[in-house]
Design goal:
Length: 147
């Protein structure tokens, strides 16, 4: 069982797409184990995007992710990291496959609505950047054996 960190970015919150995005992962059959609306701090943003430090778009990323509230979540399930990345779609909306979140709702690479962890290591690091251990809920979902 894998956990992944997903975050509706400030553009998704402003556009009222939190419900639509959550709905997709719920219907897929993944399990929501933590969620909250928050304002990303400068320190959290730098940790979040440390792999992009020094790139020409780094400052824009930090500015954007701290520009308004985000909806942070932890989802759990078999192969949750790869599945949610596939549902999110490629970084550039133009390359994202039809039916993915970015293809269906995004126009620009820098306003691409949602972040998803890309490996178990980044998931662990990102979950710890936004959630305390006691904010992650452990529970049985009775529908799980049917998925
Ligand atoms: P994310 O981390 O947000 O889930 O997106 P991703 O894995 O698809 O893309 P990543 O390579 O991690 O890049 C993080 C965010 O930086 C912006 N970006 N801009 N060439 C560019 O101008 C460029 N490349 C990346 C995107 O907003 C991307 O989501
Ligand atoms: Mg990434």
């Amino acid at each position: 069982m894998e956990q992944t960190f997903l975050m509706v970015k400030p553009d998704g919150v402003q556009r009222g797409l939190v419900g639509e995005i959550v709905r997709r992962f719920e219907r897929k059959g993944l399990k929501l184990v933590a969620a909250k609306l928050l304002q990303v701090s400068r320190e959290q943003a730098e940790k979040h995007y440390e792999e992009h430090y020094g790139k020409d778009f780094y400052d824009r990323l930090i500015q954007f992710i701290t520009s308004g509230p985000v909806f942070a979540m932890v989802w759990e399930g078999d192969r949750a990291i790869a599945l949610t990345r596939a549902m999110i779609g490629k970084t550039d909306a133009l390359e994202a496959a039809p039916g993915t979140i970015r293809s269906d709702f995004a126009v620009h690479t820098n306003l691409n609505l949602i972040h998803g962890s890309d490996s178990p290591e980044s998931a662990a690091r990102e979950i710890a950047n936004y959630f305390a251990q006691d904010e992650i809920v452990s529970y049985e979902k009775t529908v799980q054996p049917w998925i």
